[in-house]
# Entry
Amino acid sequence: MKEQKKSWNELPIGGSILEAGNSKNYFTGTWRTFKPVHNAKLCINCYFCWMHCPDDSIVIENGKVTGMDLDHCKGCGVCAEVCPKKAITMEKEEK
Amino acid sequence: MSKVFEITWYGRGGLGAKTGAILLADAAIAADKYVQAFPEYGPERQGAPLKVYNRISDDPIRLHTAVTEPNFIIVIDPSLLENINFEDELKEDGMILVNTDKNVDEIKKRMKTGKKNFKIYALDATAISMKHLGKNIPNIAILGGFAKITGLIRLDEIKKHLHAKLITKYGEDIIKKNVLALESAYEEVKQ
Amino acid sequence: MSSGRFIAVDGADTAAFAMKQIDPDVVAAYPITPQTEIVMKFSEYVANGEVKTRYVTVESEHSAMSACVAAAAAGARAMTATAANGLALMWEILYIAASYRLPIIMGVANRALSGPINIHGDHSDAMGARDSGWVQLYSENNQEVYDNYIMALKIAEHKDVMLPVMVNQDGFITSHSVENVEPLTDEQVRDYIGKKPAHFKGLLTYGKPVTIGPLDLQDYYFEHKMQQHTAMQKVLPVIKEVQEDYFKKFNRKYEIIEKYKADDAEMVIVGMNSVMGTVKDLVDELREKGVKIGAIKPRVFRPFPKNEIADILKNFKAVAILDRADSFGSFAPLYAETLAAMYKFEKRPYIRSYIHGLGGRDTTMELLGTVANDLIKMKDSGEGHLSEAYLGVR
# Structure
């Protein structure tokens, strides 16, 4: 399946991007070798992982960390590194 | 090609040659002439010799070159008199206005005029400037002399533009003094 | 008695005066001889409250152009001015301004690029920037400087263009020469330039955020260059349209390539900016002696009016091209591009290159007279065809 990209006369001029927040449509989740796995039992909801995540991929619902947005998480492992309770571990991606 | 009247000012930085040339252009434009006024720029230093040019014409001026054979030479600093080769630089029957406290016969001896025929005028613009302005800015007096000699510009037009140029920076008093310098130069210039 | 049509003003003040009447939203500039007087005079207008412009003082030309890019990207009418090394320092940002399709207007008081250091007029600065994607207009005299400024805005902001425009004039030779200029009234300029067109939006569109200048790699950059390439191709028809409209409104006639006494000429001298005034005087002088000579003055160098110039030149016997810039190791810019444009014809005139006036060297009537003499010799014998001269060099 080949993606059809737009031709020069269909694109907005000057390389501008006219659609806001379109990085959501760009799935960087496929880049991972290791994925973060969240253990809710150990988690104290300190949000360290949320603050450090460069891809905004820590999902918080009702004030609690509930998991990872694996569509966009690139598997950098910063969340596991900063977690004071070792509630996040990096596990080999199964492909 | 139209008849263009060309002027070269010989001066030194600080004597107001450029301002004089611009005022001359202003006054000529007021008479619906076409003009140019531009200096030959070297490094700009007070006291350094410099040349400023004017062109005046009834038709649009298109030339964008230095003036090399003017109809009129103004020597605003007499110390430059010996350095100017009038024979080479001035048109036959050209006119020379010198800022000097000497009379025409005296300065003639110091000038390289060769065989060409020139009309030489003397005006003590420095003395006039010292008397009315208290300092040596002889350009305005020179313009008075130029107006008298050539009839190309009118005193009232120079006055008008002097006013416009100087009013915000210097005020009425300085303008009045400049006007006095202009008027006495008009009376005093001698062939 | 005075009709009051004209003001006596030098080229730099003319530029500042036109900027005042345009009253742009933002001016960011850094002074450099011989442009200094433009921004000095304009900052006076700002200080006196005669314009509403936000004047940004910056610490370099690089920042001046960056500030203009930012302002124009935000949707502001932005202007600046520079010369020589200042233009060189803007270099990378010039490309960005053009690539982002920002209709910035910049005055350039053309000056030699050092070294050895020289502050006087030649085109080495603008010629170096000729591939940056800017539209380049050239001005023979102060009146043309004025009219080019006013028209530049209409060209830059045209929906088919949206490109920055450089208004060139010769440093010192016109920038510091007082001449007659007949300006339009403030109201005329205001009505003519009008409000910013709807397609020139920029970033400040509430509720509809956009990104300008993102990373653009192998998969899209090429397409964006094609857009720029195509926009440049639309510039000449737009300039023509703008000039015709300007003529209709203000009775001032300008053409992309000005022809002077060329209709029945056998020989022509081609060149840009102030020297062409002197060339016209020479043409008149020689015409009186029966010499069939004319002058051709491209007012636009980017985009290069290749078809227009080739079609004009093809019928002459001999052509001299004056370049006020060298292209070391190759043909001088105007010469090179004219040669390339002429290639489409089988029968071409004899042609010769003259590099002149570098560093403000006076290109006199006498020197131009030698060019005319060369043409007279070349037109029948072909002597000197394709040769390159440094006009008047010792």
